Amino acid sequence: MSYRGYEAVIGIEIHVQLNTQSKMFCSDSTQFNAGDNENTSPVSVGMPGTLPVVNKKAIEFAIKTGLALGCQIRKKSVFARKNYFYPDLPKGYQISQYDQPLCEHGTITFKVGDQQKTVSITRAHLEEDAGKSNHQGDFTMINYNRAGIPLLEIVTGPDMRTPQEAAEYGRTIRQIVRYLGVCDGNLEEGSMRCDCNVSVRKAGSEKLGTRTELKNINSFRFVEKAIEYEIERQIDMVERGEKVLQETRLWDPDKNKTFTMRSKEEAQDYRYFPDPDLLPLIVTEELIQRMKADLPELPIARKNRFVAEHGLPEYDAGVLTAESDLAQFYEETAKVSGNFKGASNWIMTELLRELNNNNLEINDSPITPKNLGLLIGMIDKGTISGKIAKAVFLDMWKDKKSPEEIIKEKGLVQISDPSTVEKIIDEVLTANAQQVEDHKTGKKKNLFGFFVGAVMKASKGQANPEVVNQILQKKLNG
Amino acid sequence: MIDKKTIEHIAKLARLEITDLEATEYSQQLGKALTHFEQISKINTDGVEPLLTPAEIEPFWREDEPKQEFTPEEMTRNAPSRAGNLFKVPPVV
Amino acid sequence: MNLTRATITEIVEAVKAKSVSAKEVTAHFLKRAEELNPKLNAFTSFNVNAVSQAEEIDARIARGEDPGPMAGVPFGIKEMLCTKGLVTNAGSKILQNFIPPYDATVVARLKKAGVVITGKLNQDEFAMGSSNETSYFGGVKNPWNLDCVPGGSSGGSAAAQAARLCAGTIGTDTGGSIRQPASFCGIVGVKPTYGRVSRYGIVAYASSLDQAGPMVSTVKDAALTLEVISGHDEKDSTTSQRKVPRWSQELSSNIKGMKIGLIKEYMQGGLHADVQKTVDNAVDALKKMGAEIVEVSIPMTEYAVPVYYLVAASEASSNLARYDGVKYGYRAEFQNLSAVELEDFYGKTRGQGFGKEVKRRIMLGTYCLSSGYYDAYYNKAGQVRRMIMNQYLEAFKNCDIILSPVTTSPAFKIGERVSDPLTMYLNDIFTTSTNLAGLPGMSVPFGMSSEGLPIGIQLTATHFEEQDMLNVGFALEDASPVKGKVPHVI
């Protein structure tokens, strides 16, 4: 993609907060919204003599994510200290992984519009989060509740060329970590943080331009907009003969532009070295295999299966696999109903509409997949009509009851028995003798529809329309 | 000898405010010590993995179980300056 | 019962038999300490609750409960170890008023075993020193000669134990800080195998070298104390999960047939005559007891001091970054905090809070880790470190224990060696390689200089073989020409 004869080069670092119960290196709770410094201990406050001890779950989550991103898992990785001073960093260093990260050399493929895009995952490494600084009046206040929360930093190669690709990459990562259950993917609460490195160069040039880093963008829509703005800004500068500064920039969503956060005056010297308080992280093949076996089907594979094996349109399959829980709901519904297309249609239209209207997640749905499947099955068997089913659906939503219960309570079972239907028809015809006469003599045209309507009404909508049609045809036109 | 400019750079990295006199002193003392220590450079260490933990110790990972053993008050009590249960520092922009 | 000269084992037996109460024992040692401390400056603070804690032990005994294997034994603890509710300052201004809300695992285990903590013991600032002269709280004096240093960095522990201001003490050893002062003060000091004793709650100097250990009066007391403090700790991932042997019960002076190694490279002269004589005497004594003396070679031993200082300073520069005036400890005075630049805030706090030697090592370590120097210094030192360890492991294929001097000379005069850091560093020649290789080592008193200063013998074993080392120490102790000698303050 060319912008005024330039090409954009984008690489992304995403910090994924692993949703463990306790921190990366100590047992403090990770619960969100705790009181000031409530989730701290001597370890996370960096008190003298305290030591880090690795959280097993965080390792497992990291391995799972690495595997899902097609990474190689290092059998031996090393935690290093990244040394720098900042008040939110209690020890004066952050424990991270440097030259020997847990996961490396992965790739991920996703769709941008109709195009397949593959992005390389250079590495995914474990590290601990810093605390939080709050500016209050003339001072800064430090809260270490967040200090030590496990993060997995996923780093891509400089492989993306458009803002759309970057945003779609971010969405794909979010979808994957949510599928894996390792992170809730919430950008606004900071459980996922996205930093984009953007530079431009003349189309066809091999040499990378000076990059800026866009930090802390809290939605993928903004990622797209911020990169778009940044590309244009950099091209403008180059065109004017100015130098792009290597700096960190932030996105202002109100003004729709990026602005300087800090320029990197001098390269930081982090003095990385292996943390002597932690042994090298040794991962056994057995553990890797166990994590592999534990991997759920990933969104792209699932979508492809829904298209290929269930015969769903690509769009529908995409919607249904957006979230693992939704896809699971669909699969259960389809299994109970035995009708892929029906299950998909009912979820895509009726269920998602109600969920949206009520601002609910799929897991909060008052209708269970089993009951929805049963409902669809009843339509397919002719027990109820599609029209009645919609009413039953709304009752199921309200009362959380099974379709059988509602149909039974309200006597909504479809009447398909020809003799019963005939009886109703006869009553209708008798009551409307004049119209029968008009129909037969052809005085009025198209009265057939009128009779179908009248019969349906008389049966409170329960008469099987097909049976009604057949008998009416015979009686009126026969 | 390590030149004073380097000493000042290192002191800045280590966040140690040092006097001019100290800088001069360190440039001599550290220079002398390092010259002595540099004798290790003549050893052939090709292919030797650096020793980090000097005894064979089995890996140990914690179970993911949250614990709360300390109050925020205990965690902030030693602070030179605090506001409620928060640590108070100069304004950080 | 002469409490002052009683061993830990004797005190425990007496307390358990109720022939003396834990309270009496604690009161006795506290009184001694308070009386003699002004002369020695070994204690930095006393535990005002010590006596009531001793009473609790008596109460436990009265109720028929098990009071623990070290019931009622008063201990002094080096300032490096965090003690819940008691100031822990690591000998530094920067931690001046720090009161930890937690105990170091070593302290917690001692308490659980029935030990009563009577106070905290002076040391070199952040354990960086070999003479106890870098302490912010003043130097410690050697009880054998008040003009001499007690050694360092665990100088307070050594002096307090030698003068029997407590029944036992704990020190820490990063490059010789237990063994050297133990030798200078004529007590027994043991540095266990790296990974044997938890470092949790011990102020970190150099994480891959630090180990805590007993500094006590007898080898048996050392074995018992070590038993109590050793073993895996889920708060320290570098502790070994190996079972802790019952060293004190297995202790045996029968060393017949044991192979004692002498390091060839150490026998090139340069030793103080009295130290040389002490080593020779020890070798003769061991021969007489049926040990076999063999020569071993550690060709790279000459590099131990450079490697030690490069590794220790590098780790220290990072370990000491947490002292920043934010969460605890010293913060420089600022007229108007809201107008202070962050860099100034840190620079002044740390510049004023740390003493000279500490700053020197932070500078050295920062330099070694900084961009462009990492490979030549830190990484290279790590490689040489492995080569040194491998040479030791090779040597231990031919012997059970290595015997060597602890230092080149007995305790020196206060102020004699502070002027030149490098000369001071080079004194650690015999002790640092043990830490680099993670081996257990100990110092046992075996001689006396012509000036009446104690001289110890260093024993080193291979990883996790403390028993052999303690046994040889036990045998030497029994044969020691200075057995039973105590400084005149007693």
Give a verbal description of the structure.
The complex is a heterotrimer of chains A (478), B (93) and C (490). Chain A is an alpha+beta fold. Helices cover 40% and strands 21% of the residues of chain A. Chain A has three domains: 283 residues, no CATH class; 114 residues, no CATH class; 60 residues, Arc Repressor Mutant, subunit A, CATH 1.10.10.410. A nine-stranded mixed sheet of chain A has the order 2-6-7-10-1-11-12-13-14. In chain A, strands 5-4-15 form a three-stranded antiparallel sheet, with no helix packed on it. In chain A, strands 3-16 form a two-stranded antiparallel sheet. Chain B has three helices and two strands. In chain B, a hairpin with a 2-residue loop joins β1 and β2. In chain B, α1 crosses α2. By secondary structure, chain C is an alpha/beta fold. The model of chain C has no long low-confidence stretch (mean pLDDT 96). Chains A and C meet through loops of A and α10 of C. β9 of chain A pairs antiparallel with β2 of chain B.
Provide the CATH topology of the domain at 1-41 in chain B: Histone, subunit A
The side-by-side strand order for the widest beta sheet of chain A comes to: 2-6-7-10-1-11-12-13-14
Shape assignment of chain B: flat
The averaged pLDDT of chain B comes out at 94
Strand portion of chain A: 15-25%
Give the termini separation of chain A.
68 Å
How many helical elements of chain A?
15
Amino- and carboxy-terminal Cα gap of chain B? 38 Å
The quaternary state of the protein chains shown equals heterotrimer
What is the CATH C-level name of the domain at 1-41 in chain B?
Answer: Mainly Alpha
Strand content of chain B: 5-15%
H/E element sequence of chain B: HHHEE
Q: Structural class, from secondary structure content of chain B? A: mainly alpha
